[in-house]
What does this fold into?
Amino acid sequence: MRIGRKTTDAQLNAAFESARFRMVPCSFADAFRISFLWNSTPEILRNITFDSRPRSKVQWYRQFTRPDGNWNFVHGIVPRDGTGAIGLHIVTLDANGVATPSIALHAKSWWGKGVFAEVRRAAMDHFFQSDRVNKFTSLVSGRNMSSIFNYRALGLSPTGTLRQHRRDPADGTYHDLIIFEVLREDWIGDGEARS
Amino acid sequence: MSQALAYELLADALGVSVSEIDADTAINATPQWDSIAHMRLILALEGKLDRQLDAEEIFAVASVQDVMEVLAARP
It folds into this structure.
């Protein structure tokens, strides 16, 4: 994997590590190639985009986050004892210092093995080192049970619920979204929220 | 009744025998209680209750006691 364009925030765009994984910055080409694998897994599409319908390559090309190394950061999740990425960790940062993360694993053999919590904890440690990042916030579908579990495992509590805030066009059902947030000041260095 | 059913549902979700479930079985104290097990448990509870749990309930289920309370509250 390589950095596809000149970065403007070398600190945030740098690779970071956890016990089992290296998170390596992706070019757009790498990010597109890896993320398009999600297209065959409705659960991932629903959890990431709130729309489980498969997309064409053109639709995905238009929709997928473009890593720019400054506001949009896409890291491949690579096992230390392997060579290929098993998924992606994505952070979109805004001018208010709010970071919105997402994570998906196309390698189903890694599902249920604590990857989310380990990678997200490492990502928060990494991003909170920068003064540009003041808060992580995430909207999670009320039906995304694994993410709800994982945020709990990270020590985060919901700060609110947006009722019937997303409609899945695939089946017409409405879904609550749960707001999870953690402030930089509430994040301890070892990766646990204070409350 | 709720306790026996709660133990049974938890054992199935965690992939262990009922004899391994006790009052201390909880999300932060039971290694088998991972994200997949949590999903299995919630789906099993919804099957017994014949309704979907809301987001707060999904978050709140974190111990065998919580499972018993959800089951006890069913109409």
